[in-house]
Amino acid sequence: MAHAALKLALAPVLVAQGLATRARIPRLPEPEGARAGEVGEIGERPPLALLVAGDSSAAGVGVAHQRDALAQPLASRLAARTQRRVRWELLAQSSLDTEETLALLQDRPQLRTDLAVIVTGVNDVTGRVPVQRALAARAAIVQFLRDRAGARHVAFAPLPPVHAFPGLPQPLRWVAGAEARRHNEALRDWCAARDGVSLVPMTLPLDPAAMASDGFHPGARAYRWIAEAIAEHLASLPALRSAAR
User: DSSP secondary structure string, 44-100?
Assistant: First the structure.
């Protein structure tokens, strides 16, 4: 209640800061490079299909090429950890919230995957999407990926530490960070109550040097850390063993 009252009192300042920040922060392009491929040694088992979907961080904004972004390095690390060939695909676009990510997936009715990694949430926060509405969109993503794409497991990346983004001024940074934590807590509880769904256990590095030049997106160092954390999580999943059969 106190948080809501403070947000209301700060509303004029937050709106002004939001507009100024949007105008000031450079709009970085999505990186060049392939958005699908195969990595790892060819073995007796069929390739493991991996999907990465979501917003600008899923797309790799903050670096120049997909080899330094998230999806391609994640596929390489997963292949190394599992000794499996990995067939990966990236479906992502800047500025998408969770509902818009669902729509992006639904535009691909022939999509097939074993594992899916969903990276969304920041645009839910900046777009003031209520927590329960964001969770409903996540539930719809899981249902679509299971029923239509054959996914055995859907892993969600946690929202980043918005409260530490150097590109955001105070008090906007504090308010957005508190809202991101609310979304993260709800997502954690929601995932814990469901089979075949997980929240990747990781705390993103707070070092500004790991961020992109806009102070808002990950840089190459942060993407490497994130890819390693997600690969470690996916490699430990029981669904990975069943996908081998």
Answer: SSPPEEEEEEESHHHHTBTBSBGGGSSHHHHHHHHHHHHT--EEEEEEE-TT--HHH
Query: d(Cα 6, Cα 179) in Å, to the nearest integer?
Result: 13
| Residue 44 CB coordination number (10 Å) | 4
Contact of 115 with 239, CB cutoff 8 Å: yes
Nearest to 93 by CA among 63, 133, 52, 139: 52
**Domain at 38-243, CATH from 1.10.1200.10, 3.40.50.80, 3.30.470.30, 3.40.50.1110:** 3.40.50.1110
Would you give the end-to-end CA distance of the chain in angstroms?
51
Task: Give the model's confidence band at 245: pLDDT under 50 very low, under 70 low, under 90 confident, else very high.
Answer: very low
Q: In the numeric block, which tokens belong to residue 4?
A: 């809501």
Q: Higher pLDDT residue, 126 or 185? A: 185
On whether the pTM is more than 0.70, the answer is yes
Helices H / strands E in the chain, number of each:
9, 6
Q: What are the pLDDT digits (tens) for 65-99?
A: 999 999 999 999 999 999 999 999 999 999 999 99
